[in-house]
Request: fold
Amino acid sequence: KTLLLTGEEVHNQDRHPQKSHTLVIGCDRELADHSSDPQILINKVNLDNGMTFLAHPYEYDLPAVGEDDISWADWEVRGFTGLELWNGFSELKSVARNMTSLVRYAFFPQLIPHGPLPQTLAKWDELLAAGNKVVAVAGSDAHALDYRAGPIRKTIFPYAYHFSTINNHLLVNRELTGDIDADKSMIYQALSSGASFIGFDLAAPTRGFSFTAENETDMVSLGDTLTLERGATLRAQLPHHANLRVIHNNRVTLNLPHADRLVQTITEPGYYRVECTIFFINKQRGWIYSNPIFAVKGLKRKIF
Reply:
């Protein structure tokens, strides 16, 4: 009873070092032929009603094992669906800066996740503040490596670890039915509209998180747009106590330590998003990152 939907990570293999990897989802044909020009690739995907996410937009190199920095480099592109805010496996390169720490994290992968890179969060806020609707997703970037040394055999970074760690939680209107076309359409709609949040579920389950905004007549949730009349109210509910922050137009407007809920009155247009950190294995780590709710004055359901 697992629904498997396939996509493709496209990049120009003739480019050295590799840059600008693009996650392509929801297309029914091969598009890697357009990898040499990210803007053309994005345009082709849009023509097919697919989605494009900029993969691991900021990354580190890892000289200890010959890994290059394969960040996104073509920031002049337009029309992409979103970006990969938190990449679970790519984060290894930012925390393991030498062979000693790499071995440590290989045997204790639960120590790897700290949160999205500050550069990635800053770029996302920059894009949102400029009026772009940019959806944030997470990626396991799952790689299970089989290690053998004589009689010793160990799977490093097993898939069970990857899939229980950093996940996308989609808000949908119904349960899966088993109808592949209907289920796929529902999931792709949630992904493309930003009706989702990122959760570090290994630290604590994030199921049950909600973030809404309401005025006198409407209530909206992640990825939606609300009209500001005389104001509106933001509400968030967390499944556990955590440190909670509200970000509005690239500025922290509320910071609540050890909270499990939020009620905040708003009057200014723009985007509002929530991020939470939680104490896990001796330090504060990123836990929940919501996609934004957009507030506008005058016109209902305006799309940014």
